[in-house]
């Protein structure tokens, strides 16, 4: 782990991207997330919409559709 992890930077950036995406008419995000990356999985589920995921080996294909 490096000194920048667990400081909320990823959450902040994703929320900022969410704000811009909604403004520009984008309806959701898709992310490929390693099964070991539970913090990113949680962030995807916290976005303003419904999240779904499909497991393929050790990677989740996660999709969030905005409300």
Structural summary, described in words:
The chain is of the alpha+beta class. It has one domain. Strands 1-3-2 form a three-stranded antiparallel beta sheet. Strand 2 and strand 3 form a beta hairpin. The longest helix has 15 residues.
How are the secondary structure elements laid out?
Blueprint: H1 9-23, E1 28-34, H2 38-46, E2 49-56, E3 59-66
Antiparallel strand pairs: 1-3, 2-3
State the end-to-end CA separation: 34 Å
Query: Count of DSSP E strands?
Result: 3
Low-pLDDT sequence parts = none
Strand content: 25-35%
Spatial extent as radius of gyration: 12 Å
Provide mean pLDDT, rounded: 88
How many domains would you count in the coordinates? 1
Number of helices, where a helix is a run of at least 4 consecutive DSSP H or I residues = 2
How can the largest sheet be summarized? 3 strands, antiparallel
Order of helices and strands: HEHEE
What is the overall silhouette? flat
The helix-and-strand class reads alpha+beta
Level of helix content?
Answer: 25-40%
Question: Which strands sit side by side, in order, in the main sheet?
Answer: 1-3-2
Task: Give a brief rundown of this model.
The protein has 67 residues and is of the alpha+beta class. It has two helices and three strands; from the N terminus they run αβαββ. The protein has one domain.
Primary descriptors:
67 residues, alpha+beta, three-stranded antiparallel β-sheet, 2 helices, 3 strands, 36% helix
């Amino acid at each position: 782990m490096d000194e920048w992890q667990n400081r909320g930077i990823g959450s902040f950036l994703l929320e900022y991207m969410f704000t811009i995406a909604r403004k520009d008419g984008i309806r959701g995000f898709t992310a490929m997330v390693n099964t070991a990356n539970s913090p990113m999985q949680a962030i995807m589920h916290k976005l303003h919409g419904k999240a779904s995921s499909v497991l393929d080996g050790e990677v989740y294909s996660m999709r969030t559709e905005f409300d």
